[in-house]
Amino acid sequence: MTIASLKSIFIGVGGSLVLAVFCSTFIAVDKILFILPVFIGFNGAMTGYRLVETLKNRIMNLFVFSFVLGIGGGAITFIAVNLAGSFMRTDFSLNIFDLFIYMAVSGTTSYLGAKLAARYFNL
What we know:
The chain has 123 residues and is an all-alpha fold. Helices cover 82% and strands 0% of the residues. The longest helix has 27 residues, at 29-55. The radius of gyration is 15 Å and the shape is elongated. The model has no long low-confidence stretch (mean pLDDT 86).
């Protein structure tokens, strides 16, 4: 159960970072930070869906677990973006408000992705 949870978190975080790096080839970095919650939302939903797909009936309270997993994915994405910004030595900085936005978006969409998967798999 732990390996499947970690896989689904890192698939979501990795997807957000890959989309951000791809868009950085033709969009300025400060504009990417503005649209990053959209990427995080899409990959948060994918995290919740993947969690239900792999674990199905092995978790008692699946929707709370997927919400908490989504919040963790948003926090890890925040940390990764801050680390990437410090390595690139750019002038952008994310604050605590951005952390809460990332966590709320990722948690909510992970919950919705889990609901979609539960409906799809008739759980």
